[in-house]
Amino acid sequence: MMKKTLMMLFLGCSFLTLTHADASKLNDVLDIKTLRVCTTGDYKPYSFLKTDGTYEGIDISMAHSLAKSLGAEVEFVQTSWKTLMADFLDDKCDIAMGGISISLARQQQVYMSEPLGVDGKIPFVRCEDAKKYNTLSALNQKNVRAIEPAGGTNEAFVRKYMPNAKLELFHDNTTIFKNLVDKKADVMITDASEALYQKRYYPTLCAVNPEKPLEFFEKGYMLPKGDISWKLYVDQWLHLMQKNGEYNAISAHWLKADDVKHHDKKHAPTKHSH
């Protein structure tokens, strides 16, 4: 009787394991030959929606590489930072890509891939104000006008660490920097990688202390919680991309050599990091 019970339990566990594996996004992509990728399309150099309706950027190239490894084509699903999590949990895509920060809040709802690289939040300001806004205490003042895209970790940072500052949520992440140039805002808290990239197009703006960010974090891709088979595949593909130099080659196409070095460097977190 005991042997029979144990055998039934073993068969039941085996059935559940096989059922879970069959339900994996990995099998879906392999069967359908389509990889659905949620991306905001407003975050250079990672993801940008062009006027002709096509996407470009570091993570756009990475999405095509992942799809190619699966013998599939990419179907990009437009989302926003404000609706990213809701769209992902609504099963609108198989993976979310595009400069996404790994955070504990996100990790509570989804799996995150192995980290792509280290980054950090820094002030992006007019160069004339770089020394003025180089500390968190200087930023957290009532007369400081911060501007951020709605949703995402930039807004969360300002609300947590700069509660005294005046926060404006801006609708267009691609033109938000002009507000700094035109002195309609004083600072934008953003990722060091984005600030270094955007400085090329806005030479009067400066990335403040990119080597010493106010908050440490890593970037990765969002994956469905509980789908171990899919996560293991994506992590292994990402590991190979990093080890064989393909990821660095893609990054170098978008970032200058110094910026790529900065992006891959292990920053030492400041006392405000977590």
From TrEMBL:
Signal peptide: 1-23
Entry keyword annotation includes Lyase: yes
GO molecular function annotation: arogenate dehydratase activity
EC number: 4.2.1.91
Solute-binding protein family 3/N-terminal domain mapped to chain residues: 34-258
A Pfam family the protein falls into: SBP_bac_3
Broadest EC class assigned to this enzyme: lyase
Domain of life (superkingdom): Bacteria
SUPFAM superfamilies, A to Z: Periplasmic binding protein-like II
UniProt organism field: Bartonella apis
Statement: the UniProt record of this protein carries the keyword Transmembrane helix: no
Keywords: Lyase, Signal
PANTHER family, A to Z: AMINO-ACID-BINDING PROTEIN YXEM-RELATED, MEMBRANE-BOUND LYTIC MUREIN TRANSGLYCOSYLASE F
Name assigned to this protein: Cyclohexadienyl dehydratase
